[in-house]
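OP here, attaching both records as promised.
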Amino acid sequence: QLRLLHLQKLVHHRGGSPGEGVLGPPPPPRPVPFLDALRNHVGELCGETLRLERKRFLWQHQLLGLLSVYTRPSCGPEALGHLLSRARSPEELSLATQLYAGLVVSLSGLLPLAFRSCLARVHAGTLQPPFTARFLRNLALLVGWEQQGGEGPAALGARFGESASAHLSDLAPLLLHPEEEVAEAAASLLAICPFPQEALSPSQLLGLVRAGVHRFFASLRLHGPPGVASASQLLTRLSQTSPAGLKAVLQLLVEGALHRGNAELFGGEVDRDNETLSVVSAPLASASLLDTNRRHTAAVPGPGGIWSVFHAGVIGRGLKPPKFVQSRNQQEVSYNTQSLLSLLVHCCSAPGGTECGGCWGAPTLSPEAAKAVAVTLVESVCPDAAGAELAWPPEEHARATVERDLRIGRRFREQPLLFELLKLVAAAPPALCYCSVLLRGLLAALLGHWEASRHPDTAHSPWHLEASCTLVAVMAEGSLLPPALGNMHEVFSQLAPFEVRLLLLSVWGFLREHGPLPQKFIFQSERGRFIRDFSREGGGEGGPHLAVLHSVLHRNIDRLGLFSGRFQAPSPSTLLRQGT
């Protein structure tokens, strides 16, 4: 202890006596050989201090402080960085806060220098992944203490939060780090790190969003829904920074969920044909007609363009092997889907959406945010139809888009998540109007199936039956159909295929006459959402299109008589009160 006091006197009185240097330049600081010898052993001294050996670590910690003051500004940031990257417990982490408290008066800019030096070591690869992950976790812990009102490390957490917010561009790539523990620690830090007061630049924002979305799906694949909390919190905060941030988050989330690499997370079919084909045809790569056709059709053709591609096999190698479908446990699929939808709902929620009366706490979704999801859906499923007319053409027009409609129907069958995303869009009228081309293509594909079916009932086509019911229910939820027509899916399971086709044709006819256009919706301030008053449209309650439904009911009155009350056109006042 006496030696420490002597060193302290030498460090703080290095400039000499007050009278020296009055008649000339001030003398150089007096060297301290002992501290000069320790200059290159800061890492070892920090390691010994963190061992927390009784009594020893106290004077070792004091020695670190004296060395930092003596060699300023080099050893102070280095020592603080070593402590932050090696501390494995709150007790060890408190040594960093105590060192900062002792040096903050004499060393200016200590934290920014320590932060920059550690990040430089991370990106240079000189800081090993376990220490990098520990450094990021400790930073997240300090910032979290500051946000919770902790007393000891609060100032350090606030200062480090400011330093981290100034280096978001350097932290974002760590979300893509190949080591899982580093990427997860970076997500934990960025999830609570304060953003700069000025708006994020477009490059910073897009970089963070892309890395955050990648982290979300990687965590979902490796750890399941419990592991996506940090990534979800980060993306939710990014969506609240600006309208551009909201649009980027929603677009990349939807595109990522529909990407073939993530499709199986949400119950989608994984097409292994490409992998099998590449292995089979490796010796004869030039013989693959499929690869040649794909190269020629790499560009997105315009409406009505040629999309025909040979998919049967490889010339000289025979037919492709049977399609391999990898499926996950249904409970896991539901859990993953709910996690994604929950994140999308949080991002799409309008401010104050839970305060509307009669909503049972359900969040009110922003129509603009839901519109962004709808537009992304169209661009992902059918890019050649993006920007198509919202109005519905005559049913005969479907003959000119058979291939596109079949492609849309096949995509819905391969990826059940599309139906859940349509339900999300339908919950915020009039956003579903912008999915008109998808609804039209799916409806046309279902009409073609039911027309070709020769079975006596719909039980032989379970997927098409479920898709038909879901499609009509979604259009009713999105206020594209009046309640009387929107309830018809309740009887589909009791009908023959040709009767289902007749009812779906009546839906097509109604949508042709009463197109799904956003200008037909009015804002109802009491409910805080847009509604559609069908009574103001001529025949908007169903009119002649209900005649087909009533005819089918009469034909099956013995089985469907109890359903007749569900298909009566409501009064205008009732329709306005229901809203959807």
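Record two, same layout:
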Amino acid sequence: MAKPTGFDFLAESHKEYDIGATFPPQSKELYVIPSKLEANIMTELPEEICMEILERLPVKSLIRFKTVCKPWKYLINSPDFMERHADRSATNHSKLGIVLEKYSEATHECSLFFHELNFNPISLGETTMIEQPITRCKEVKPLSWCRGLLLLGVKCHHTFLLWNPSTRKCKEVRDPTYHCYFNHEAISASALGYDFTFKSHKIVLISKIDRNPNDISVYNLKTNSWTSVEVDKDHEYASFDSSTTVVNGIPHWLVCYSRFQVRKADEIYYEIEYFNYDMNKFVVVPQPCGYDYDSPELFDMEGRLCIGYHTCGKVEIWVMMKYGVKESWSRQMIFGDIIIPWYPICFAKDIGVSLVAEGKYGVRCYVIYNGKERGTELKFLAADSKIRSKNAFAFVESLISLEPERY
């Protein structure tokens, strides 16, 4: 496998980049570029039928098919086709994506390692990996994943980077012009989501510097623009957990509040909140009864909001069956008598597969579970002093463009 070229974040006058990562090995599924005769037949078919056929193919094949003929290229590059392909991928996938960030003291270079784990019946357990060296940047932190795009926080002359691992495209997101200073560590709670009304990815920037109140802005990928959000009194000094969970395009946070009590220490409690793109404000999601004062963890399980609690030596996993309805919380799993530290990191859709962190002989290890059944241990996630951050999520391929629409 050829070594990928480095990506210079300080390059000027570029809007969208091919980051040069090597393509993963061929999968077990075979997709052959059509002959000229077959291509001519396809071009004579109605566009709707062509879209029905092409939207079922993986991104790698669609990128190749764009060279077959101009009508296919225009069709595959159209925003409507990209939306349809993303919708189909989101409802029919069985993959986990794992992103590792490593730093080399010798070369002073960051590298991103994107691992794709395929759990469908044809490619059960198949793993592919993309390595992307990053130059002139001290740190890259995966922040959030949504609908085919990964949001990265970078310690560089700008703050955010958007990356599509499927197309190998990358885009620098310019900082808001009304901000004069950003602290790289202060944006860790920022998240990437998707506005289905506006049909655009959006970044919710949450910046907290020292003892100043929270500063919140929203970036719209479609218009390549930032909008400042008025912060209400409740959220000025609220503490947003840096582990963001995106459910059906909506970013969710655990928000920590302190309720002052006379003659007593401040009372700490947690709320689940999401950002409403229509109203540009945070909205509270009800928790299961009796758990408001525990420190839980959020997950996305098959498009449903999921929450995990660690109580009295056990782990409870609850799922909200009907979004926004408190009474619809259902306890799906309970693991008791836990001697070693255990908690899920993420869930793949449709197949009940989860990535779980365990404590083993004083060292943390990462294991694939199918329900409660322990499966393969992922050796590449073993203790490594060079790994500075990890991020895992249910992976969906996407053709989504990183360029703003031209009106």
